């Protein structure tokens, strides 16, 4: 099959007309297949009040999807044609072709009357990304900015193609890329049609092609407006220099071509007010449009771990990310480690700040001031990002325009990196939208170190007073997110959370048995609960609703309940001496649950007397061992030691508690899970392939197995039997 997959205005119609005539029934076209594209399209089509037939046809995948899936299953070769184009020149064509949809107020006016307003509106779309945009504006922004992200989203992620190898051939104007059963012809619009015809001749040896001229903007009724727009449209030079420095532009154009484009589209100085709108300073323009998310790292005396955290992030980096690292008064050489790692990664856009002393919540203004992404991804300096974290976060934000916070589960690790189990073994994936539920539900365990939030979670509220709420912003974000939109929680672990005596919550007294330390940490939590009340009142004053009334009452109840508990601890502190064991416990590192070594070819059955069963029962997420099996909770993780280099897989024999099939997922080292349909009738052998351990996981020498049974309603009834939520493991074999 042949798929014409483009971001529009790059010979799409001409290619479809030519190839459909030659290969009838085998040629399909679309401007997008991935959720990151189609979510915005669907929202726009549902909201648009004008005729959207043209755009609707460009994203109609009803006939394409089943044909594409059939080709993938059968291994049929999929030929993809796509193109790139000067981003500014293309945006003019997009704007004029979609005039009625994106700029209906200009329809009916003469070209001379409309051109300056169209230039201003298009310049605004380029220079200002609106995180609160309505559906039409969001669609226009996506179409205009497509050259900065579309290729990676649709061709890189969508079809697994590496567009950096081979490098794009600027001299010929096209390059052929090969993947699994996929061949891509990527051409440059400025070299068409010759580059297309030459590339097609190489894809289909022995055939010749002549590309017709179809859907040419200059020949349409709007052709005069298009010509006037090309004459009048200009952007600030600083903006253009940043735009053409983007990797998704610079890859396809050389220095001379880029300099020519900047000179072509840059405004004279001073710029005429009729052609270029007022813009903020250059530092605030293009970067906000091209940086989708900012990964921010507060660093404080974690020199021994920050290098590994950076490498774990860079192994899954994307060109639409930036790094913001804030050294919050460190006294070790952590900042030196950062600069050494960044020196090995010149492709990373990074901003580094340093405070003379630790500020806690005082870093929030720095994040707002210097972060350019609308999504802020937290990465603590002593933790690790597990494979897939960034994509999982960004896909949730892309799928839900109302999403304001994404959190996940975590694998706990020791100071040295040994796995300690899952942090949360009880909760499934979930989406919270009602602020009523948040103060009650998020007594449930989760970790702020896994969070990524929309910048409105900071900006939509009054600035925090560090003296009233010095610590615990992660105690505020779930409520704030649901006051503004939704909070997505992922049961899959995407962070390795390192537990050690110098954890920030431990330094403040969290988890201590020492009464004085409990009282100190409780005071911090109490201040965060008071801040929750202020947050609800802040939103409620601007938009009073019954839902916010209920949320305020729930926050006030939670504050009073916690105040009662904290007061009792405080009063006990006045009459009791701190115990030495309590003080000593502050320095205790976490214990490592039992880990057994598996021999290849041997089966390890579960029984109350077996070493494997006793080991599993020592991990979070397991019930007590029964006669022939051990049950997990909704999810669990455990480590095994495998020393045989010839072993190829772990086989787990398992079943569920229900006669109806339920799907469980088994994963090794947090990689792609293996799905298994389980019932109570018969045990199923689930084979989990062994592969090379990822360089980003810290527990080298161990293999971490995770088991999940998602989607089961927690309806244990009067029996209270939580086994119905999990999986029964009866034996494990190394093969």
Automatic annotation (TrEMBL):
Signal peptide: none
UniProt cross-references to InterPro entries, sorted A to Z: Glyco_trans_2-like, Glycosyltransf_2, Nucleotide-diphossugar_trans
Glycosyltransferase 2-like domain: residues covered: 294-402
Domain of life: Bacteria
Protein name: Putative capsular polysaccharide synthesis protein
Organism in which the protein naturally occurs: Methylorubrum salsuginis
């Amino acid at each position: 099959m042949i798929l014409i997959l483009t971001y529009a205005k790059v010979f799409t119609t001409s290619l479809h007309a030519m190839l459909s005539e030659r290969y009838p029934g085998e040629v399909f076209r679309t401007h997008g297949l991935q959720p990151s594209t189609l979510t915005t399209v669907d929202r726009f089509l549902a909201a648009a009040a004008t005729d959207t037939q043209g755009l609707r046809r460009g994203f109609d995948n009803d006939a394409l999807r089943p044909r594409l899936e059939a080709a993938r299953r059968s291994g049929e070769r999929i030929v993809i044609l796509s193109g790139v184009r000067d981003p500014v020149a293309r945006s003019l064509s997009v704007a004029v072709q979609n005039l009625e949809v994106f700029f209906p107020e200009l329809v009916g006016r003469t070209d001379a009357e409309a051109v300056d307003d169209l230039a201003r509106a298009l310049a605004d779309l380029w220079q200002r990304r609106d995180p609160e945009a309505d559906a039409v504006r969001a669609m226009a922004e996506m179409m205009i900015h497509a050259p900065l992200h579309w290729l990676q989203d649709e061709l890189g992620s969508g079809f697994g193609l590496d567009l950096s190898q081979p490098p794009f051939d600027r001299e010929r104007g096209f390059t052929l890329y090969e993947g699994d059963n996929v061949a891509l012809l990527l051409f440059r619009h400025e070299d068409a049609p010759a580059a297309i015809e030459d590339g097609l001749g190489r894809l289909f040896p022995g055939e010749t092609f002549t590309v017709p001229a179809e859907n040419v903007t200059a020949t349409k009724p709007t052709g005069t407006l298009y010509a006037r727009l090309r004459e009048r449209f200009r952007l600030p030079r600083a903006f253009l220099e940043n735009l053409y420095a983007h990797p998704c532009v610079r890859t396809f154009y050389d220095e001379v071509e880029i300099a020519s484009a900047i000179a072509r589209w840059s405004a004279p100085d001073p710029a005429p007010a009729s052609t270029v709108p007022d813009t903020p300073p250059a530092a605030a323009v293009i970067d906000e449009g091209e940086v989708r998310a900012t990964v921010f790292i507060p660093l404080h005396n974690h020199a021994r771990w920050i290098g590994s955290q950076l490498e774990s992030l860079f192994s899954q980096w994307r060109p639409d990310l930036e790094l913001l690292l804030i050294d919050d008064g460190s006294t070790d050489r952590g900042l030196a480690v950062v600069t050494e790692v960044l020196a090995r990664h010149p492709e990373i856009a990074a901003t580094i700040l340093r405070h003379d002393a630790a500020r806690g919540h005082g870093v929030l203004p720095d994040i707002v001031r210097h972060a350019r992404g609308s999504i802020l991804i937290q990465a603590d300096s002593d933790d690790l990002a597990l494979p897939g974290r960034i994509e999982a976060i960004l896909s949730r934000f892309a799928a839900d325009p109302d999403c304001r916070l994404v959190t996940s589960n975590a694998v706990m690790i020791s100071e040295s990196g040994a796995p300690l189990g899952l942090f949360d073994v009880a909760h499934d994936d979930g989406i919270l939208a009602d602020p009523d539920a948040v103060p009650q539900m998020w007594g449930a365990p989760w970790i702020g170190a896994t969070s990524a939030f929309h910048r409105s979670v900071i900006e939509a509220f009054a600035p925090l007073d560090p003296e009233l709420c010095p610590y615990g912003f992660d105690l505020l974000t779930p409520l704030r997110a649901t006051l503004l939109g939704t909070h997505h929680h992922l049961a899959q672990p995407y962070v390795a959370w390192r537990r050690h005596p110098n954890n920030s919550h431990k330094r403040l007294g969290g988890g201590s048995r020492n009464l004085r330390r409990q009282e100190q940490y409780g005071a911090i939590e109490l201040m965060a609960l008071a801040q929750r009340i202020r947050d609800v009142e802040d939103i409620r004053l601007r938009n009073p609703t019954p839902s916010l009334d209920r949320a305020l009452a729930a926050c006030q109840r939670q504050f009073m309940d916690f105040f009662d508990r904290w007061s009792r601890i405080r009063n006990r502190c006045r009459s009791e001496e701190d115990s030495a064991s309590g003080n000593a416990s502050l320095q205790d590192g976490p214990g490592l649950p039992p880990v057994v070594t598996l021999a290849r070819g041997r089966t390890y059955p579960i029984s109350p007397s077996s070493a494997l069963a006793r080991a599993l029962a020592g991990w979070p997420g397991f019930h007590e061992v029964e006669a022939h099996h051990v049950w997990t909770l909704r999810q669990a993780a455990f480590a095994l030691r495998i020393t045989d280099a010839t072993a190829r897989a772990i086989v787990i024999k398992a079943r569920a508690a229900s006669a109806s099939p339920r799907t469980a997922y088994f994963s090794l080292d947090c990689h792609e899970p293996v799905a298994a349909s389980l019932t109570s009738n018969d045990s199923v052998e689930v084979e989990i392939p062994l592969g090379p351990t990822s360089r980003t996981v810290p527990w080298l020498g161990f293999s971490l197995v995770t088991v999940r049974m998602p989607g089961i309603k927690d309806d244990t009834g009067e029996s209270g039997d939580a086994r119905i939520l999990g999986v029964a493991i009866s034996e494990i074999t190394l093969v």
